[in-house]
Write a structure and sequence with these properties.
Number of domains: 1
Keywords: ATP-binding, Cytoplasm, Kinase, Nucleotide-binding, Nucleus, Ribosome biogenesis, rRNA processing, Transferase
CATH superfamily: P-loop containing nucleotide triphosphate hydrolases
CATH architecture: 3-Layer(aba) Sandwich
Catalytic activity: ATP + H2O = ADP + phosphate + H(+); AMP + ATP = 2 ADP
Bound molecules: adenosine-5'-diphosphate
GO molecular function: AMP kinase activity; ATP binding; ATP hydrolysis activity
Order of helices and strands: EHEHEEHEEHHHEH
EC number: 2.7.4.3
Subcellular location: Cytoplasm; Nucleus
Radius of gyration: 16 Å
């Protein structure tokens, strides 16, 4: 049993699978939940050890990141949007949604982002090899890990509705 009055939800998946799109729509539909963009925290609060030129991304300092978000996340009510999940302590997390997309869809989305070739390929490989779903299953109890397809707008809508329904049930189950 948790002392949180609202749950914390991790939205994870390979870059381009739709984490931010889902997080923004979910936060719009459920105003009691707030979007926590780990990308923004890393950048704005300098939770990194510098910039990786080859990958065009920050080298994240995980300890500093966890320190930066711990107090607020422990209050509950956060949608945590990040392409990794194993760094967040189990006790902080009530639901882990792993978003998936087919290779062609993902290729198109990442190409539009002008990813460097090496980063594009690595992300496609990661999706094909089930890296994020495996990481989620290795890090959290099976009952709280959900894998959802995010190939098109209908799936986005269905996913957000499903998470909204889950939230309502969570609130009933965790009434004080
Ligand atoms: P992530 O946060 O996982 O990197 P984004 O939410 O930024 O991914 O989505 C990447 C791109 O793919 C955006 O242009 C977004 O509009 C599109 N996209 C993501 N999910 C879907 C979906 N289910 N249906 C249609 N377009 C999507």
């Amino acid at each position: 049993m948790t002392t949180r009055t609202l749950p914390n939800i991790i939205l994870t998946g390979t870059p381009g699978t739709g984490k931010t799109t889902h997080a923004l729509l979910l936060a719009e539909r459920c105003p009691e939940l707030k979007h926590l963009s780990i990308n923004d925290i890393v950048k704005d609060q300098s939770c990194h050890e510098g910039w990786d030129e080859e990958y065009q991304s920050w080298i994240v300092d995980e300890d500093k990141l966890l320190d930066a978000i711990e107090d607020q996340v422990k209050q509950g009510g956060w949608i945590i949007d990040w392409h990794a999940c194993d760094l967040f302590p189990k006790s902080w997390v009530d639901l882990v949604v792993v978003l998936r997309a087919g290779t062609e869809v993902l290729f198109d989305r990442l190409t539009k982002r002008n990813y460097p070739e090496v980063k594009l390929q690595e992300n496609l490989d990661s999706e094909i090899m089930d890296v994020l779903i495996q990481e989620a299953r290795d890090s959290y109890d099976d009952e709280i890990v959900v894998e959802l397809q995010s190939g098109d707008a209908d799936e986005l809508e269905a996913n957000v509705e499903r998470i909204e329904a889950w939230l309502e049930q969570w609130k009933k189950d965790n009434q004080n």
